[in-house]
Each structure stands twice: as structure tokens, then as C-alpha cells.
Amino acid sequence: MIEEKEYLLRRKSFLKHLKNNSAALLFAAVPKVRSHDTNYPYRQESNFYYLSGFEEDSAALLFVKSKEGSKSYLFVHKKDPDEELWNGKRLGVKKAKKRFLVDEVFSYDTLNQELKKLLGSKRHIYYDFKLDYSKVKLIKRYAKAVESFHNGAAYIEKMRLRKSAAEIAEIRKAIKITKKAHHRAMQRAKSLSFEYELQAEFEYIFKKEGAQSDAYTTIVASGNNANTLHYISNRAKLDKETLILIDAGCEYNCYASDITRTIPASKRFSDAQRELYSLVLSVEKEIISMVRPAVLRSALQKRAEELLCEGMLALGILKGELDSLLESKAHKKYFPHGIGHWMGLDVHDQAPYKDEKGREIPLQAGMVLTVEPGIYIDKNDKSVPKKYRGIAIRIEDDILVTQDGYENLSKGIKKEIRDIESLASL
Fold it and tell me: SS3 of 70, please?
């Protein structure tokens, strides 16, 4: 659990970034309607959570900075016994004042009158440029003396690039739970009949082990379904001659895990499956070994493409000269996505890949990224040897950049062929 002092330090860092005579306003996530009068499970907006740790809706954070000093204000939903009867208890203003290290706590229904007092003379206003129009209109209604508007979310997302020890601990917990789910799937796949049954195994472990939810919709893609990168219908019958690509991770205290393993639907890989899997695994291992401070993600991408192209050429999937194939990007047909992404409060973390001048941000200690090479060969692709058609493989791990290299946070999740087959045989 992240302590209130850490959230306080984050708010102080954010305030330092603001211009004098300015204000910044952040809003909690708005509940999303699922059907008529029922909502999806509530999940806090990530930037708001990063600066507050507050998990309820109908909330806002206001920062005010002047030459006289800086203050932060939290607005929370008031206590309402009638509403709480239906929707659960609220923290309320009094308890929020005791818990959160902000200067003042107000009821959310007083937001308009407080904004009128606190924004009226401010010259510079910061807010999330992705806000819906109604909230933008609210801000501009009271910012009468404004000279400039700034995207406050951009600096918060930059802060989120490097994780604290407490954040890494939350990610480790999410991965620990996800490990149990993947290993259960490796054991259970041979005895199940449909993709959704494997999805249910993941959701069972996630809930049983205390995760609040999955970090994204679980992908259980058997056979040729895995050639759809974001396949989530998970309704097909399992063909015991094929592989199953499972991309699944849980979210713990809002922090994500993101793991992909590709396993046989039976107990063993076929020879062709083994050849392609071994190629992807060897590439993943080499790319992970390259991770260290000052390395560019584009260098990881380039090397992954070189290795995959070279491997596919050796297997007869691609034909021609290596340099020409790379130049024409022939390999992109079978490896169309990036080598990885930032991960944290969001599974695809809202953190920049380039700085204000458009330069790529190099890896730094404290960053967490995925490494996920893959090969995807459609069953109808007659340009490749028949034995490889309909096979899709991705292997993905969550990597922490350290001062002198890296730590594979998910190294405990089995991915060697012998280990996967051993689990499948239990």
C-alpha cells in the first residue's frame, strides 16, 4: 500500500511545475453506464489516483499557486445515508480531512462556489486536455483573468515514468497473482473445451487472490484466432492440435501486470510449433538482456525485428536477402506491433515516449516496460510452409529498469518449452 506521504510528495512535485499565479484542476473518473441504470465497476482515473490515492467518484483536486505559497484542495462526495443505502458508504469530508494530507477538504457540491473564489484572479490554468466539454466549460467560466491554458496531465504522466519502490511493490503483487493464474491455465488447458473456460480460470484466481480486477480484457486465442492481436471474444472451441495464446494480467491497487504466454492446447508442442516458439523465446531473451539505462526503445525494436526477420528467413517463412527484407519491412507482415510499452497505473501506461523537443526518452532506472516479440501466421497464408500456417506466438514479460541493468519482474512465470509441457502433464 502506498502511504499518504508519498502522495503528498507527488502533489508537491506537481505544484513546483506550475507557474506562479496559477491553478490546476483534476477530476475523478465519471461512472460509466453498462446498461440502463447499472454501471460498470468503478475504476479511478489514473492521474487523479496518482496524486491523491482517492478511489471514489464525484471528486476533484484543486491546486492553487501564488507568490504567497501553494495549496491543495480535495473535493469529495458528501455523506448521504439514503444514497449509501443503495451504493455503499462514502468517506465524507470529515474522514477525508483526517486521512489525506491536503490543505483543505470540501464537499463536491461546493466546487462551483470555491472555483469562483479561487480561479477568478489566476493567470494560468492547468487541466487535462482530454476532459469532456462540460468540465472544460466549468473551468473557463470562472477563470476570468486567464492568460494561458496548459495540459496539466502531461506533466503528471511524465512523473509517472519512473516508479517508486512502493509502486514497484504493487506491480510485484499483481504479477505474483498473475503467475498463479498462468500456471493454473497451463495445467488446466488440456482438460477444457472452450476458450472462455480458460478465461474463467484467470478471473477465478484474480478474485481469489485479492486483485480488484483484470488489468485489461483477457485474451484467450486458440489456433488461428491468435492472429487477431486483440482477440477478446474467447468463445471458440479449443482444438487440441493448436496453440493457445493467453494475454492476461490482473490489477492490484490500480497497478497493472501484463503477461503473455503461448501454450499447447494438449500436453505437448508439435515440431513446427516448437520451432516457431523457440525463435520467439530466443528473441525475447536477447531483447530483455539489452535493457539498461540510456538504451532507446527504438534500439530494442530494431534488434527484435532483425532477429525475427533472420529467424523467419532460416525457417523459410521469408525468402530473399536479409538486408533487402529488412529494408522492405517484409517481416512486419508477421510482427506488426511494437516490442513493448510502459506499464504502471495503466497497462499501457500514460507516460510519454518522447520529450518536449520530440526526442526519444531513453530508458532510466525505475521505468517498467513490457518486452513482447511475436510471430503471427494466418492459416490462409500460402506463401509460407504449410506446417507453420495458423500458428501465432507471443511471449511477454514485465521488465524493471535498474541502475545497472534490468530485473525481469515476471521471470517466475514459466516459459521454457520443457517447463510448460511439464506443468501440462500434471
Answer: strand
The secondary structure of 258-275 as a DSSP string is -EEEEEESSSS--HHHHH
Report the C-alpha dihedral over residues 184, 188, 194, 199, rounded to 10 degrees: -10
CA distance 75 to 156: 19
With 0.90 as the threshold, say if the pTM is over it: yes
Residues 90, 100: Cα–Cα separation, whole Å: 15
- pLDDT tens digits for range 43-76: 999 999 999 999 999 999 999 999 889 999 999 9
Spatial distance between the Cα atoms of 84 and 2, rounded to a whole number of angstroms: 27
Residues 368, 280 share a domain:
yes
- For residue 370, the surrounding DSSP H or E stretch is strand 368-371
Residues 108 and 42 grouped into a single domain? yes
- Cα–Cα nearest to 163, from 254, 287, 43, 295: 254
The contacts of residue 190 (CB under 8 Å, 6+ apart) are: 240, 265, 266, 267, 424
Where residue 138 falls (left for φ over 0; alpha for ψ -120 to 50; beta otherwise) is alpha
Catalytic center residues: 37, 230, 247, 258, 337, 341, 348, 372, 376, 394, 396
The answer to whether the CB of 303 falls within 8 A of the CB of 295 is: no
Residue 335 pLDDT more than 90?
yes
pLDDT band at 133 (very low <50, low <70, confident <90, very high): confident
Q: Are residues 122 and 237 in the same domain?
A: no
H-type helices in 77-164, by residue range?
Answer: 81-87, 92-99, 111-119, 133-142, 152-159
| Mean pLDDT of all residues in 395-417 | 98
Q: What is the pLDDT of residues 159-188, one digit of tens each?
A: 999 999 999 999 999 999 999 999 999 999
126: domain CATH number is: 3.40.350.10
For residue 353, which of 406, 398, 400, 297 has the smallest C-alpha distance?
297
Q: Which domain holds residue 117?
A: 4-159
Last residue of a domain, one of 159, 179, 204: 159
Confidence at residue 134, expressed as pLDDT on a 0 to 100 scale? 87
The residue assigned the cell 538486408 is 323
pLDDT at 1 exceeding the cut of 90:
no
H or E element that contains 149: strand 148-151
